[in-house]
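**Entry details**
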Amino acid sequence: MTRSSATATGFIAVLLWAFLALLTVGSAPVPPLLLNAICFTLGGILGLIWTFCSGGLVQLRAVSWRVYAFGSLGLFGYHALYFSALRLAPAAESGLIAYLWPLLIVIFSGLLPGERLRRGHLIGACLGFVGAAVLITGGAGGFQTAFLPGYLLALLCALCWSGYSVLSRLVGAAPTSSVAVFCLLTALASWGLHFALEETVWPQAVMGWTSVLLLGLGPVGLAFYVWDIGVKQGDIQLLGTSSYAAPLLSTLILVLAGVADASWSLALAAVLITAGAAIAAKTV
């Protein structure tokens, strides 16, 4: 695979992640852990098929159990928090807060040994958190305490994925085929916790099942594999820049689908969060 084709392959993940919020809304009223379990079961099966066809099964034996544990915890934590947040607060607002993770990755990376925070990092952080504040305070609609738990879970979601991404430097590299194991271990943990903690509510009608199926095959399935190929074989800087479009695309899709109302506060927050991440990432 050429560098340009690998980059294009990675960009597919950005497009798929833009539909994560819409499909999560469409999967209601499935509880978060059950949704996690179904989606990662589908994503894991998809990965095993891809791994078998590409001859990557042998590579899995060389991967440390620490890498499997770390990767599975990262996927489980992020998506369980994300699905929970969108069940407790408006999808567009929660999704944008969760999309603080690109900005937080840059900030946390500046705290690693040999790195330092620069003025651009702080400017980007300020813009991003102002955008989140606009969402939480409700813009013209005012602050609504009923949505606060969902917003806090969305913030934890962003912290979880950014922390996972930065700390993954310390764990070691793993082949793309290992993502299938991450997904299956995440599914196993989700099934167990679901039956222990949640009431089982299956997807409703055709729309619900279609949303869950598309989630498991797309944003919570194929996206992980194509992104892994992109960042390892393509132009990682170009892919990193393109990922900042995901919150804008996600918000636009929710508005066009009628799930979220177009408003100046929502548009302002989307621009601030995206711009903050871009400015922080461009700082050298």
Q: What stands out?
A: The CA atoms of residues 30 and 202 lie 6 Å apart. The chain has one domain: 3-282.
